[in-house]
Amino acid sequence: MDRSTIIGLVLILGIFAVWNFVVAPSQEEIDAQQRYQDSIAALNEAALIAPEEVAPAFTADEVSSIDDSTRQAQFGATFGQFASSAVGTDETVTLENDLMIVTLATKGGHIKQVELKEYAKIIEDEEGNESKLPLYLLEDERNRFEYTLPAVGVAGEGIKTSALYFTPEVSGNTISMRARTSTGGYFEQRYTIKDGTYLLDYDVRMEGLGQALNTQGGALTLQWDNYFDKIEKNSQYEANYSTMYFKPIDDGTDYCSCTSSDTEEVEEQRLKWIAGSQQFFTSALIANDGFAKGAVLETETYDDVDVAENLKKVSARVQLPVTNPNSDIIGMQLYVGPNEFDRLRAIGHDLSDVISFGQSIFGAINRWVIRPLFQFLSSFIGNMGIAILVLTILVKLLVYPLTYKMLVSNVKMQLLKPELEKMKAKHKDDAQAQQMEQMKMYQEYGASPLGGCLPMVLQMPIWFALYRFFPASIEFRQENFLWANDLSTYDVLTKIPEWIPFMQGHISLFAVLWAVTTVIYAYYNSKHMDYSAQPMMKYFQYVMPLLFLGFFNSFAAGLTAYLFFSNTFNIAQTIITKNFLIDHDKLKKKMNANKKKPKKKSGFSARLQEALKEQQRQAAEAEAKKKKK
Question: What is the pTM of this model?
Answer without folding.
Answer: 0.79
